[in-house]
């Protein structure tokens, strides 16, 4: 894999929201462990926010489902969301519920994700980038080729987990308190309820293409994991099936000004 491009300076966190980093994800030297499941599958993308990251590698994650089930305000700001086709969604993780089949959700070994560590002073920029999520400390497993998944050393790392409109409003938008809506970017909400068919939202093209290319760069196993264990908002349709039905998605490049950021 070619070395990542020179990173931009880390984004500045919103002064109105200074989250505390989950202490379980903080290492003894003050660095913070992070698990990536979407755009953070790309080291180049991760370095846009955390230019000094270290130890980028693949890991396994169990007990969660990867799903395109929420709108992302930043996609509207960057002009890549399409409200007419409902291709406006981003990725998040959601904990499996009783009755969910783990093998269907993430395969027998867990889904392939990435792991890296960032300096503590770069955490606020990461939190600003992932503003709509709950940043939860979760256990990950080393990605070993033993057929059963790697062992866990007991350490935890931050994962972007499904949150709620109310939590987003409480953290970021005083004007939204009590409305329950996404407001300000043309959508009535950010988070959509599960298992709705047909889905209320579909993958944002430039973002989904970027994530597929990032997974491909990690190798065939990571790509298969991403295609077969990433779901649309109905929690049934896999991304592989969606791409088979919509092959033009992978043929649609991002706008020129975003080509490097959304280039896999």
UniProtKB/TrEMBL annotation:
Sequence ranges of Low complexity compositional bias: 8-19
Annotated spans, Disordered: 1-22, 243-264
Lineage: Eukaryota, Viridiplantae, Chlorophyta, Mamiellophyceae, Mamiellales
Protein name: Gamma-glutamylcyclotransferase AIG2-like domain-containing protein
């Amino acid at each position: 894999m070619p070395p990542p491009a020179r990173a931009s300076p880390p984004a500045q966190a919103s002064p109105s929201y200074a989250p505390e980093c989950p202490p379980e994800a903080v290492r003894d030297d003050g660095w913070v462990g992070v698990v990536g499941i979407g755009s953070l599958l790309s080291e180049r993308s991760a370095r846009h926010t955390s230019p000094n990251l270290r130890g980028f590698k693949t890991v396994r994650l169990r007990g969660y489902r990867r799903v395109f089930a929420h709108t992302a305000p930043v996609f509207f700001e960057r002009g890549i969301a399409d409200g007419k086709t409902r291709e406006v969604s981003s990725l998040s993780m959601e904990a499996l519920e009783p009755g969910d089949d783990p093998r269907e959700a993430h395969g027998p070994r867990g889904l392939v994700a990435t792991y890296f560590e960032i300096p503590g002073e770069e955490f606020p920029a990461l939190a600003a980038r992932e503003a709509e999520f709950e940043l939860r400390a979760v256990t990950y497993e080393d990605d070993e080729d033993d057929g059963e998944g790697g062992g866990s050393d007991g350490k935890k790392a931050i994962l972007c987990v499904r949150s709620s409109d109310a939590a987003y409003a409480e953290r970021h938008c005083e004007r939204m308190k009590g409305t329950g809506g996404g407001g300000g970017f043309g959508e009535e909400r950010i988070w959509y309820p599960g298992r709705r068919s047909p889905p209320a939202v579909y993958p944002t093209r430039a973002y989904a293409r970027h994530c597929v290319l990032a997974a491909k760069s990690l190798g065939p196993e990571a790509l298969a994991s991403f295609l077969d264990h990433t779901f649309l908002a109905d929690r049934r349709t896999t991304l592989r099936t969606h791409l088979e039905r919509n092959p033009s998605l992978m043929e649609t490049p991002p706008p020129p000004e975003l080509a490097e950021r959304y280039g896999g």
